[in-house]
Write a structure and sequence with these properties.
alpha+beta; 482 residues; nine-stranded mixed sheet; Arc Repressor Mutant, subunit A; 39% helix; single chain; binds zinc ion
C-alpha cells in the first residue's frame, strides 16, 4: 500500500453480563432454549414500559471511566427507528447526541510502537433478538426460511466508538484486544467473541499519503474475532486501493466479512444517521449520574491491564509474561499473591503463564476449579531455589497440586521427585563418574567446557535424575580446578 494511508475507526459492542436485561427483569443467559427468557417489554408488546437497569448503568460507567472518558452528568435515551424481524418494537432504545460517556482514550502498543486511540463516545443501548437463517450456509440470501430468537432482545449493550485514529490492521487488532482485556478486568462482561458478547464494526477508508481529507469509507459489520478483524480490514484496504487505482470511486456501503472467502462482500448501501429518525425516548426520564456516583465508580476500578503491565515491568517480569498476565486478571491475582507470599517472580511467571494456562485450557477449566493456592507456588518456588526439586520436576509437581493431590511437598514426596540434597551422596556419585570417564574429566581439567554437559548428564543418570544439575556442575568444575 505504498503511497496510501488507511484510516480506520471501530465500533465495539459489548454485551454486559448483568443479572437482568436493560429495561425488564428477564434474566441474561447464554444458550437458553430460544424464546424462553422474554416478557412483554423485551418482546415490544403494546403498553409495556421500560425500566432502566442500574447494574447496567454502573457497568457502562466502569467502562467509560476505564477508557478515561468524561462522564455526562445528564444523558438521555433516544429511539433508533428501523424495521427488522429481530427488533419487535421497530426501534432500539439507544443514545444519540447526549451519550453517557465521551472523549476518552486508550493506549495501544504494537511491537513496541505505542499510540493513543481516541474514544469518541461510549453509549448505552439494548441488544436486538437474533435471526437464524436456515439453509444456504446461514446467510439470509437464499435461505429456506428464517427463525427469530428474542432471548437476546433487550440485553444491555455498550457501544464503544473510536476516533478514526487507527492506521493499520495490526493496530486495529491490538485495539480490539486491549478493549477486551480492559472490559474483562472490569468484570462487567465475559467478552466472548465467539459467543457474540463482544463484536466489532470497522469503518475503513484509504487516502493518498499526506492527504488531510478522509476518503469515502465502508463499514464491515459484525466481525466476531480479532483475527477476522485484522484480516477484514487488511482485505478492505487492499480492495479500496484497487478500486481507486483503477479510476473508480469507493462506494459508501456496508460490507460483510466472510472468513471462508477471505473477502468482504456487499451487504447493503450504507444508512445515514438521518435514516434512523432518532427521537427522544418518551418512556424514560433523563439519566443522572452525579459527581459522587462518578467518584465511587472511579475508586472501585480494579488495576487495568496497562497499569499491570507497567508494574510487572518494574518487577522484572519479561514482556511476554507480563502481557499474558495483564490479559488474565484472575491468573495475575494468583501470581501477585504468590509473589507476596515469597514466591520467585521468574519461576511463578513461567508456571502460571505456562503450565497453569495449559492445564486450564486442556480441561476447559476456570482457575477457581483448581486446587492451587498462592502458598503452593511459594512453597514450590522455595523447593526449586533450594535445590530440592528440579525445574522439570516442579512442573510435574504443579500438575499434581492443580489436580488437588496436595501441597507441593506432599506431591513431590508421593511421586518420589525430591532431589538429593545430601552433599555426601552427590559427592560420591560425582567421584564415581569421574573414575568411569577419566578421559572426559581430563579434558575438563584442560579447560574444555564442552564435556561438562556430558559429565553432568552421567551424574544425573547415576542418581536417577535426582541430583541438582547446578550443584553437580559446580562440583565438577571445582574438582577440575576451575
Ligand atoms: Zn423481558
Amino acid at each position: 500500500m505504498s503511497g496510501w494511508e488507511a484510516v480506520v475507526g471501530i465500533e465495539t459492542h459489548v454485551e454486559l453480563q448483568t443479572a437482568s436485561k436493560m429495561f425488564c427483569g428477564c434474566p441474561v443467559v447464554f444458550g437458553a432454549e430460544p424464546n424462553t427468557t422474554t416478557c412483554p417489554v423485551c418482546l415490544g408488546l403494546p403498553g409495556a414500559m421500560p425500566v432502566p437497569n442500574e447494574e447496567a448503568i454502573e457497568g457502562i460507567l466502569r467502562i467509560g471511566t476505564a477508557l478515561d472518558c468524561e462522564i455526562a452528568e445528564h444523558s438521555v435515551f433516544h429511539r433508533k427507528n428501523y424495521f427488522y424481524p429481530d427488533l419487535p418494537k421497530n426501534y432500539q432504545i439507544s443514545q444519540y447526541d447526549v451519550p453517557i460517556c465521551h472523549d476518552g482514550s486508550v493506549e495501544i502498543d504494537v511491537d513496541g510502537d505505542a499510540s493513543v486511540i481516541g474514544i469518541t463516545r461510549v453509549h448505552m443501548e439494548e441488544d436486538t433478538g437474533k435471526s437464524i437463517h436456515v439453509g444456504e450456509g446461514g446467510r439470509i440470501h437464499g435461505a429456506e426460511h428464517s427463525l427469530v430468537d428474542f432471548n437476546r432482545s433487550g440485553v444491555p449493550l455498550v457501544e464503544i466508538v473510536s476516533e478514526p485514529d487507527l492506521r493499520s490492521p495490526e493496530q486495529a487488532r491490538e485495539y480490539g484486544a486491549e478493549l477486551q482485556r480492559i472490559v474483562r478486568a472490569l468484570g462487567v462482561s465475559d467478552v466472548r467473541l465467539e459467543e457474540g458478547s463482544m463484536r466489532f464494526d470497522a469503518n475503513i477508508s484509504v487516502r493518498r499519503a499526506g492527504d488531510v481529507e478522509y476518503g469515502t469509507r465502508t463499514e464491515v459489520k459484525n466481525v466476531n474475532s480479532l483475527r477476522s478483524l485484522q484480516r477484514a480490514i487488511a482485505h478492505e484496504i487492499e480492495r479500496q486501493i484497487g478500486v481507486l487505482e483503477s479510476g473508480e470511486p469507493v462506494v459508501q456501503e456496508t460490507r460483510h466479512w466472510s472468513e471462508d472467502l477471505g473477502a468482504t462482500t456487499l451487504m447493503r448501501s450504507k444508512e445515514e444517521s438521518e435514516d434512523y429518525r432518532y427521537f427522544l425516548e418518551p418512556d424514560l426520564v433523563p439519566m443522572r449520574v452525579d459527581a459522587s456516583w462518578q467518584a465511587r465508580v472511579r475508586e472501585a476500578l480494579p488495576e487495568l491491564p496497562a497499569a499491570r503491565r507497567a508494574r510487572y515491568k518494574g518487577l522484572g517480569v519479561d514482556r511476554r509474561t507480563a502481557a499474558v498476565l495483564a490479559a488474565a486478571p484472575d491468573i495475575a491475582d494468583l501470581f501477585d499473591a504468590a509473589v507476596s507470599a515469597g514466591a520467585d517472580v521468574r519461576l511463578s511467571g513461567i508456571w502460571v503463564t505456562g503450565e497453569l494456562v495449559a492445564y486450564l485450557r486442556a480441561g476447559d477449566r476456570a482457575l477457581d476449579e483448581t486446587a492451587v493456592e498462592p502458598d503452593h507456588l511459594a512453597e514450590l518456588s522455595a523447593m526449586v531455589t533450594g535445590g530440592r526439586l528440579s525445574a522439570t520436576a516442579a512442573k510435574e509437581v504443579l500438575g499434581g497440586v492443580l489436580d488437588g493431590d496436595g501441597s507441593p511437598g506432599e506431591v513431590a514426596a508421593a511421586r518420589d521427585l525430591l532431589q538429593i540434597t545430601d552433599a555426601g551422596a552427590i559427592e560420591s556419585a560425582v567421584a564415581a563418574v569421574i573414575g568411569e570417564h577419566a578421559d572426559a574429566f581430563a579434558k575438563l581439567r584442560e579447560g574444555d567446557e564442552k564435556v561438562l554437559g556430558f559429565l553432568v548428564g552421567q551424574v544425573m543418570r547415576a542418581t536417577g535424575g535426582k541430583a541438582d544439575p547446578r550443584q553437580v556442575s559446580e562440583l565438577l568444575r571445582s574438582k577440575a580446578g576451575g
